[in-house]
Amino acid sequence: TGMTVFSIRLWPRWPRFTDERLAAGASRAIGGRMIVTRFAPAPTGRLHVGNIRTALHNWMLARKAGGRFLLRIDDTDAERSREEYVTAIREDLAWLGLAPDGEERQSQRLGLYAAAFERLKQAGRVYPAYESAQELDLKRKIQLGRGLPPIYDRAALEMSDTERAAKEAEGTAPHWRFRLDHDEHIAWVDGVRGPQKFDPAQLSDPVIRRADGSWLYMLPSAVDDIAMGITDVLRGEDHVSNTAVQVQMFTALDASPPRFAHEALLVGNEGKLSKRLGALGCDAFRERDIEPQALVALLARLGTSQPVEPIAERATLVAGFDLSTFGRAPARFDDSELERINTAIVHQLDYAGVAHRLPQGMGEEGWEAIRPNLEKVSEAGEWWCLVTGPISPPQFDAETQAFLRQAAKMLEWGDDPWSELTSVLKQATGRKGKALFLPLRQSLTGMDHGPSMAELLPLIGEDEARARLARAAS
Ligand code: GLU
C-alpha cells in the first residue's frame, strides 16, 4: 500500500512487559497500524515553548515512522477559545515547518462526545452529581485537614432516586462524573517513564460534563483519540494522571488505549516553572527574528541524552528521534542557548531561503560575504549599507591620508582586487598588519571590523571604492 507499517524497533529500549494483560493490550494497539500522532492545543493563547516542543516531538515521531501528524483544536471551552488563536496556531506551525497532515476541531464534534456520553451512561460509567463548587471545596479542605488525600468521596453515587429528584425539583442541574472502575487496576508502559501503575481508588471520578452540558477536556480527548485513530499520545508529564483516567475511558468505550509517553516539563533559567517561560510565545520568537530551525534544533533534543546542536536539516533530527533518550528530569530552556544556536543556524542559511528577507539589491555574493557577521538575518541590512553607502569614515592624520591617496592610485580591478591592492601597498609603503589593513577598511566601509574585505570590495565596485579612498584621503 506504500504505507509504512509500524515496527517495534521504534521503541528499542522499552522496558520488558511485566504484566501479561498489559503486553496483550499493547500488541493489540500496535497491530501493524500506521503511526498517527496529534498535537492538541486549546486556542486560548499563542503557542509557547512548551507546546511548540510537544508539537515538534509528535511531528518527529510521526515523520520517523512514515506516519501521520494531526492537529486537533481543543476548543470546547467557547468562552476562552478565540478564532484569532486558531489562525495563529496554524500559522505558527507552518512557520515552524510542522504543518499537520489533517485537522479536527472539537467544537465541530460535539455529537460524537454526546454519543460516547450516552454509551457510558447506559453502561453505568457516568453519574450525575449535584455538589456546588463551594461544597466540593469544603470537602477537600476537611480531607486535607485530616491529612487525607482530597479524593472525591462519591457522595453523589450513593444518592437515592428520591434524593436526586429533590435536587432536580430545587432546580439544581447536575454535572457529570465518570465512574472509575476501582476493580480495574490501571497500568501502561510509558514511552518515557517506563511502567506506570495507578490505583483507581486513589483518583477522583473526574467531572466530564458541566451542568450547562459543556465538555471538560477529559472525555472528548479520549473519544477523539479513538475516532482519529491516534496510535501514540505524546504529551507533558502534567497529563500523567489524566492518562490514568483516560486508559479506563478507552476500555469503557471498547477501544485499546494508544501508546502513551509523557515528557518531563520544561523549566526556565530560574530552575522552576516560570511565568516567563510560558510567556515566550511563538510570536515573540518571530519578532526577535529567531529562525524556526533554531527553535526546532534546540527543542528537538533538549532534555534528551543527545547533544543539542545547530542542526538545520530536519531529516537528521528526525532520524535521531528516539524516546528512549528522553530524560525524566525537567529540561532547562535557556534563552542564550537559543541565541547561540540561532547564530550558528543563520551561518548555514542558503541565499535562496532568505532572499525575500534581504535588502533590495543584495544578491548571493552579498549574502555570503555578510552572513558570517550576522546573529540575526535582520542585521543583514545594516551590513549591506557598507556596500551601498553612504559611509562615514573617521578623520585620518596626514600620513594616513597620503597612504590612502596612494591606495586610490594603485587600485587595480582584477580577479581579487583586495589582495592585489594590499600586496602592492605593502611593497610600496612597508606597512603591514593593522597599519596596512585598518585605514583601508575604515575608508572603504566606515567601520573598524566587518565582513571579509576580499568579498566586500567587489560588491562595492571599482569606481565607488576609488572614490571612497580618495574622499578619506582629503
Ligand atoms: N488541550 C490539551 C492541552 O493542551 C491536550 C492535552 C492532550 O494532549 O491530550 O493540555
Describe the structure.
The chain is mainly α. It is 46% helix and 10% strand. The chain has 21 helices and 12 strands. The strands form 5 sheets. It has a 3-stranded parallel beta sheet with strand order 1-2-3. It has a 3-stranded antiparallel beta sheet with strand order 4-5-8. It has a two-stranded antiparallel ribbon with strand order 6-7. β9, α8 and β10 form a beta-alpha-beta unit. The longest helix has 16 residues. The N terminus is likely disordered. It binds glutamic acid.
Features:
disordered N terminus, 21 helices, mainly alpha, three-stranded parallel beta sheet, 474 residues, three-stranded antiparallel beta sheet, binds glutamic acid
For the biggest β-sheet, the strand order reads 1-2-3
Question: Beta-strand level of the residues, as a percent range?
Answer: 5-15%
| Distinct small-molecule ligands in the complex | glutamic acid
Any idea what the radius of gyration is? 31 Å
Spatial gap, N to C terminus: 77 Å
Oligomer: single chain
Number of helices: 21
Shape: elongated
DSSP E strands, number? 12
**Structural class per helix/strand content?**
mainly alpha
Helix content percent band: 40-55%
The biggest sheet amounts to:
3 strands, parallel
Average pLDDT reading:
92
Which spans have pLDDT < 50 for at least 5 consecutive residues?
1-30
